[in-house]
Amino acid sequence: MENLIKKAAKDLAKSKKVVVLTGAGVSVESGIPPFRGKGGIWEKIDPMEFAHIDSFMRDPAKVWNILIREMKDVIEKAKPNNAHIGLARLEELGILKSVITQNVDGLHQLAGNTDVIEFHGTFAFQRCLKCEKKIETSKVCLDEIPPKCECGGILRPDCVLFGEMIPPEHLFRSGKISRECEVMLVVGTSAVVYPASIIPVDAKESGAKIIEINPEKTPLTENISDYIIMGNAGEVLKEIVSEVELLL
Ligand code: APR
């Protein structure tokens, strides 16, 4: 893995147009479980029953009790780990331009990245189903489930649930920057959820070098990624950034 770390550091240091696509794997070392694979949330509960817009509308209390309440606890305790910190440092060094994240935990912004496209929305806010008002999740009282807005409407996370559209502005902007970047880091994603999973394909077709960081292979690994560094994001990104700093 050592020489791949050095290879990635060289590829990054010589580029000024690097974009990263991240998934739940970058937040695992912050204590937020992934969705798939070892310890994955979807190994315990069925996403179609608890994370689909139709199931939320049918029984919001059930989704709040089984999924959202726990997400609130876990995310509120989470701090950026070495993966988030490494990506923020790459922005400071003028190498990383934008982060496209599938995560809703806000840890990239907390670590210091300033251009973060939250492709699946954000858990930082809840949105009223009736008046669309947004309320900070940390300010939502869970004495009543499902929690309600002052107008009486039910609150839901400002995240994209299964069965919902990705906000068009995120689709457009992610497509644009993935077609313009020279290098795309793909970190901590199983690359199985569309349309996020085709972002690296767009980048590849537009001539970018694709570097995966993941302890496991993904559907991108064989045909899209130029190479995969098989390890934990925190440790790998920390080592890559140290190598990059020696090259600058
Ligand atoms: N470092 C890097 N990668 C890791 C680590 C780690 N420490 N731990 C796990 N991984 C990898 C796993 O091997 C897996 O490939 O992170 C990936 C996590 O995959 P998922 O849980 O499927 O997360 P993600 O790809 O972000 O899911 C996409 O699915 O359920 C929806 O909306 C949800 O945004 C999510 C989307």
Index terms:
single chain; 248 residues; Rossmann fold; three-stranded antiparallel β-sheet; protein acetyllysine N-acetyltransferase; EC 2.3.1.286; Sirtuin; transferase
Instruction: Quote the distance from N terminus to C terminus.
Output: 22 Å
| Radius of gyration, taken over Cα atoms and rounded to an integer in Å | 18 Å
Give the ligands present.
Answer: adenosine-5-diphosphoribose
Count of discrete structural domains: 2
Largest sheet: 6 strands, parallel
Write down the CATH topology of the largest domain: Rossmann fold
Q: Report the mean per-residue pLDDT as an integer.
A: 97
Q: What is the CATH class designation of the largest domain?
A: Alpha Beta
Q: Strand tally, please?
A: 9
Any idea what the CATH superfamily of the largest domain is called? TPP-binding domain
Which structural class is indicated by helix and strand composition? Answer: alpha/beta
* Beta-strand proportion: 15-25%
The stretches of 5 or more residues where confidence is low (pLDDT under 50) are: none
Number of helices: 10
